[in-house]
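To close the chapter, one final illustration. This time we ask the reader to focus less on the individual chains and more on the assembly as a whole: which components sit near each other, and how the overall shape emerges from the parts.
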Amino acid sequence: MSPKKFSVLDHVLVPKHERIPISEVPKVLKEINATINQLPLIRTSDPVARELGAQPGELIKIEREDEYTGKTIVYRLVVIG
Amino acid sequence: MDSVIEKVVMEKGSKVLPESILKELIEKLKKRNVTEEEAKKIVELVIEVYQNSLVEPGEPIGTVTAQSIGEPGTQMTLRTFHYAGVRELNVTLGLPRLIEIVDARKVPSTPMMEVFLDEEHRYDREKAKEVARRIEFTKVENVANLVEADLYTGSIVVELDPEMLADKGLTVKDVYNALKKLNFGEVEITDEYRLEIRLKEAGDLTYISKKRERVLNAKLKGITGIKRAIIQSRKGADGREEFVIITDGSNLPQVLKVPGVDQSRTRTNSIYETEEVLGIEAARKVIINEIMNVLREQGLDVDMRHVLLVADIMTQTGRVRQIGRHGVSGEKTSFLSKAAFEMTTKHLFEASTQGKTDDLKGVTENVIVGQIIPVGTGMIELYVNVEGNSPATNENKRGE
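The assembled structure is written out below.
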């Protein structure tokens, strides 16, 4: 009945997610001046991570649209779980 | 002129200021008719004020947050219900709801969904009703006038209410099929709105009343967990009036599969379901929305940044965890800190039998042993090279 398959990425509650390959991780960490274990996590079982096919060790760049601050960029580290 | 202002603001501020301030700045400067020189100066001033108002390193933002939410919390009414548009449907709000959210309970005490409809069903009440019927969980009990167990013949008689049937969009045939599925025995339509189930085996009173109970609860249509579906009309984003279904009960994964539902906007107040279906970032957003909603409804003016911090901490590990013994506090590394929070003896016994050591990195531990707490200027440590005269080159090890 539904014409196209629903993707969780289209939901209004889900901000824009983007995969960052492992090779670019050090560069990003340097840019935001943080170590890898200071980052919040996202699990591979997370619906959005599954949709993107994210692998452990990668980062996911999240663009939050907030009424308060406008656009904010956050990174989450992909872990097994 | 306008483009010049935009250029000046973006050039100076885009690296430092958040997007919302940049936008506001451009908007306000355009109205003021300022020269390029003036604009530059204003942007510089804004940056200065912004940087001065940032949180300083070492500021105990967690404590500030706890107090900023906790103090207004004392003024909240203990038991409040808010009518969600319709009299019959009320939602827990106030302190109980707040506790529920930070405790990360799996099922809220009043689960609720806001089901938006797709282009086709959005603007027509009849079509909206059609979708509502697909969602609302309907049992035989809801459409029957009478369900009677006949001990003598060993059968169960179901008398349907034609009005209720029409209201739910069902036919006698639907009920017939549902009863047949139960597999209790022969089902027969004896009259226009009368069905009879002849049980396979005879039994005593308790046996038959048990079967009767099962017949009453037999599912006809709808989604498990959705007790009611109420249609509301409201102004959409495009200014056009649209119909929205508010439900009592929540089942996000199933409702999203129903044809006619706008999957990208439908939401629930159950944080757990959101996390399962839409992921951790969506769960974070629901936590923020729900807490802000509770606070706003009570007329409490709590800065959103405190709520953001709570939501960030709760979703930090990629799963929603509660603020409390089984979540944030329970996962602290320091046993002294855990002992100070709850179940003192248990944590101390455990630590002593395992021969644990405490690094004394946190605030609580240092209060216990009577040292300067690592907050504000207390966070700074000095490393001095005793041997040589050169200043220490070692990097500060704290915060690894």
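The CA atoms of residues 9 and 25 of chain B lie 8 Å apart. The first strand of chain B starts at residue 80 and ends at 83. With these observations in hand, you are ready for the problems at the end of the chapter.
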